[in-house]
Amino acid sequence: MSIITISRGSLHASTEVAEMVATELGIPCVSREVVVAAAQAAGINELKITEQLDEKPTRLFARYFKEREIYLWFLRSELYQYASRGGFVYHGHGGHLLLSDISCLLRIQVVAPIDNRVRSIMKSKQYDETAAKKYVNQIDSWRNKWMRHLYDVDWYDPSQFDQIFNIDKINTKDAGRLIIKTSQLACFRENENTKEEIENALLIARTKAALAKSGELFTSLLEITSLAGTLSIAGKTRSAKTRDKIYETVQEALAGAPFERELVIAKDEISWRDEAV
C-alpha cells in the first residue's frame, strides 16, 4: 500500500504526475472531491475557504478562524477515511501536513520555473509579461502567508518533502516513474504500525471535526487522544450540560463506539475562551 501526497507547485504538472502515478499503482487519485466532501460535511461554502488561498490575507483573515478550523478537521477526517481503505494519491494544498501522522507517507512536490508559470498566466489570463510575473509573485507570497497561518510552516521549506521535481529538468512521465520506484522503498511501504496510525488519526479527526462544528472544541479545554483504536477525551468544560453535550457529540461521531472520558467542570478557568472566539 502506498499513500502519496503531491503538492501543487505547478497545477497542470502536478495533476499529470498524480494521475499517472495512481494509474500505474492501481490506486485512487483524489483531489477536489475530498475538498468538496469536507466542506459539505462541515456545512461551509468550500469556495470561501479554498479561494482565499490565492488571495491576499486581510483583516477578514481572523474572522473566518472557526470556519477554517472546522473545514480543516473535516478535511483531515476525509483524507484519513481514504487512507483507512488503502493506498491513494492526493494532490492539493497541504496534504503532506494533513496526513502527517502516517509514518510511511511519501511527500512529493512538483515545481515549475517561474518563466514557465509566467507564460502559462499570460496565456490563460491574457496578461502581458510584467503583469503575469507580478501575479505569480503575489500568489506565491500570499500562499506562503496562508500556509504559515493554517499550518505554521514555510511554504518554501524543502524539508517538508521527500522528493521535489523541477519539471524544467525532468518531464512528468519520468517524474512519475521515479515516484513509483521511491514508493516501493521499505520506508514508504505499509508497516506494522500503519493501520493503527491511521485508525487513531481518523478517530481524533472525526471527533475534533464534530466538536468544532458544534462549537465545543473552541469553548472547552479538551485533550483528545487515541491509542490502539480507543479514543480518550479529557479536560475541563463549563457545566454538566456542556459536558453531556460533548459526550453526546463524540458518541455520534464515533457511531456508538466506546471511548474513555474524564471531563471536569471548571467554569471559572475557561470562561475567557467564550470571549476570545
Explain what this protein looks like in three dimensions.
By secondary structure, the protein is α/β, with parallel strands linked by helices. The chain folds into 2 domains: 3-188, Rossmann fold; 215-276, Histidine-containing Protein, Chain: A, CATH 3.30.1340. Helices cover 56% and strands 16% of the residues. The protein has a 5-stranded parallel β-sheet with strand order 2-3-1-4-5, sandwiched between helices. A 3-stranded mixed β-sheet has the order 6-7-8. Strand 6 and strand 7 (230-237) form a beta hairpin. Helix 1 (11-25) crosses helix 9 (172-183), helix 5 (65-85) runs antiparallel to helix 10 (194-214) and helix 10 (194-214) crosses helix 12. The longest helix is centred in the middle third of the chain and has 23 residues, at 129-151. It is globular. The relative contact order is 0.14.
Salient structural properties:
single chain, 277 residues, alpha/beta, Rossmann fold, Histidine-containing Protein, Chain: A, 2 domains, 5-stranded parallel β-sheet, 3-stranded mixed β-sheet, 13 helices
* CATH topology description of the largest domain: Rossmann fold
Assembly state of the chains shown: single chain
Provide the residue-averaged pLDDT.
Answer: 87
Total beta strands: 8
CATH superfamily of the largest domain: P-loop containing nucleotide triphosphate hydrolases
Overall tally of domains: 2
Structural class: alpha/beta
CATH architecture of the largest domain: 3-Layer(aba) Sandwich
- What's the arrangement of strands in the largest beta sheet? 2-3-1-4-5
User: How much beta, percentage-wise?
Assistant: 15-25%
User: Spans with pLDDT under 50 lasting ≥5 residues?
Assistant: 271-277
Helix and strand run:
EHEHHHHEHEHHEHHHEEHEH
